[in-house]
DNA sequence: TCAGTTTACATGCATTTGCATTCACTGTCG
DNA sequence: CGACAGTGAATGCAAATGCATGTAAACTGA
């Protein structure tokens, strides 16, 4: 079996660029879907991340780490989502400075609705392009990158 | 050799989610780098895409397809980049409605500078996480997705 | 050829974003 | 304790963004 040397700069950069461009191509197609007329992509992203939260409540700063927007932007986005009745906000128990956020029933329902369409479109877009095994490999590789980045 | 069936909905969705979350994790780390104090990420992205353009000139709508921002946003971003002396803008030859954009020398130099740092940081972030072969596999898979999406 | 449609980009305007800063609470060290 | 640095979120304000629309050029088909 051939040995795989430590990757050089060119290899990592080209792999990243390919990944990034693929993400852009998929996102552009997603953004145009009718579901995202109801709720902006970035707002959906907040609901989606909240839906993954084990206890249902997430700290604002923790949530922020999973998003590409700034802390003040998220703070105000949560304001808006709260006014729309999609999320709840409460002061954190252990730290009076912090706040915790969770989905309302309505927010959870909306996330599920949009998520379902989301997944359906993803499948119709992507499924023809790789085999089941290849998707598994892809996921294995990106999971490895993702988990490697978390502890740095 | 095992046969790989057509991928199911869950498989494609999970692979996408993993890819997307990895992209977010990398981007968050990139955004904080000092190079992006000079020029916003999105503006760099425009310069980068122009730098790839074979003839040096790119149509606005063509450029827009490689980005996640709206057409009016790009139109005004090009205004700003032009005022900063980083890009040139001219009316397209064959179509008086269209405009073509290219980097100035200064724009090209800035893109190269930022790009160099960009790549260096990418490498230090990612290289320890996969082998050379794995980066090759990753690139192969995302290239396949990307090229499959272009012709739809 | 010329009305009707489509395509490419620009603009008006309300909303959202980010940066810098502030405010409130926490933790530390003398 | 009590000043002081550190942390988490909110706010003022200028800049950037998107949607809807406008303008102009290019197609299209009687």
TrEMBL record, chains A, B:
The residues forming the signal peptide are none
Start and end of every HTH marR-type domain? 12-147
Tell whether Transcription regulation is among the UniProt keywords: yes
Gene3D superfamilies on file? Winged helix-like DNA-binding domain superfamily/Winged helix DNA-binding domain
Q: Name one Pfam family in it.
A: MarR_2
Q: Which UniProt keywords apply?
A: DNA-binding, Transcription, Transcription regulation
Statement: the UniProt record of this protein carries the keyword Ribosomal protein: no
Q: What is this protein called?
A: MarR family winged helix-turn-helix transcriptional regulator
